[in-house]
Design goal:
Structural class: alpha/beta
CATH architecture of the largest domain: 3-Layer(aba) Sandwich
Number of strands: 9
Helix content: 40-55%
CATH class of the largest domain: Alpha Beta
Radius of gyration: 26 Å
Largest sheet: 7 strands, parallel
Strand order of the largest sheet: 6-5-4-3-7-8-9
Strand content: 5-15%
Number of helices: 9
Distance between the termini: 62 Å
Length: 273
């Protein structure tokens, strides 16, 4: 046995001449020496009723919460079947043309065999959920914890609330065959550019992105063409990553063409319970 072997755990009590013997302790995969060594054990800390609750707010515990959100989301949506996510402003007024467009899109998606997935809030999100619900389809709302109370709208049949935006975004993309983007603000733009980036980088390959509302989105599209593409920050081919329309019928035609091109999606055995 060599000296190195001894120091690597085959003779931990033997050291090279002149080497200071240092206290050592292992806690699972973690090696602690010197001042890092503590006197407690993992079981002791688990069973000690006198501890405070600060551990609930540490990063390692957050990892567990993040994992649990993924597990809950995957479990709830795995059998959803073909679905389309509809985005738009929470500030869209009930009865407005934009709201009615969302209702019509939700109904049309259900008629074509899709579940409708939204952020679950009011406004444009509510409108698409309402159209799906009233048409007898599956109306899904993926909510998010915010500093102000928003909650899931009354037309959501299957709802999940998330703490973390990035977990929620994963659910939107993983379980959708496309995005329909109604007029909206920063949250809508966030989801839009997330989707465009994933398509551009080929992280997702079966994904039409449809901007609904020509007047609303034309300024953004002109900026993309006149600034991003013109200055070489994006390529002309990137303009094909999305399509612009005012027609519910064209929305459905774009989705149908994408499904024909990519092949039909597998149908679920039943709706999620």
């Amino acid at each position: 046995m060599t000296t190195d072997d001894k120091l690597n755990g085959h003779g931990a009590d033997q050291f090279r001449p002149g080497m200071r013997k240092i206290a050592e302790k292992r806690r699972g995969p973690v090696l602690m020496r010197g001042d890092q060594v503590d006197t407690g054990t993992t079981d002791q800390r688990l069973l000690d009723s006198a501890q405070n609750a600060d551990w609930l707010h540490t990063d390692p515990w957050r990892v567990m919460r993040i994992q649990s959100e993924f597990v809950e989301g995957f479990g709830a949506l795995a059998e959803l079947g073909p679905a389309v996510s509809v985005f738009g402003s929470a500030r869209t007024a009930v009865g407005s043309p934009e709201y009615q467009a969302g209702v019509d899109i939700g109904r049309a998606l259900v008629a074509a065999g899709y579940a409708v997935v939204t952020g679950g809030g009011p406004g444009a999100m509510e409108s698409a959920n309402r159209g799906a619900h009233e048409a007898g389809g599956t109306s899904v709302g993926l909510g998010i914890e915010l500093p102000f109370e928003q909650g899931l709208n009354q037309y959501v049949d299957l709802g999940l609330n998330f703490r973390y935006f990035f977990v929620r975004k994963t659910m939107f993309v993983k379980y959708s065959q496309g995005f329909v983007v109604l007029p909206g603000g920063f949250g809508t733009l966030d989801e839009l550019f997330e989707a465009l980036t994933l398509v551009q980088t080929h992280k997702v390959t079966r994904f039409p992105v449809i901007l609904f509302g020509v007047d609303y989105w034309s300024g953004l599209v002109d900026w993309i063409k006149g600034t991003l593409v013109a200055q070489g920050k994006a390529s002309a081919a990137d303009l094909e990553l999305f399509q612009l329309t005012d027609s519910v019928e064209e929305v459905m035609a774009i989705l149908a063409e994408a499904e024909h091109r990519n092949g039909p999606q597998p149908q679920p055995a039943h709706r999620p319970e």
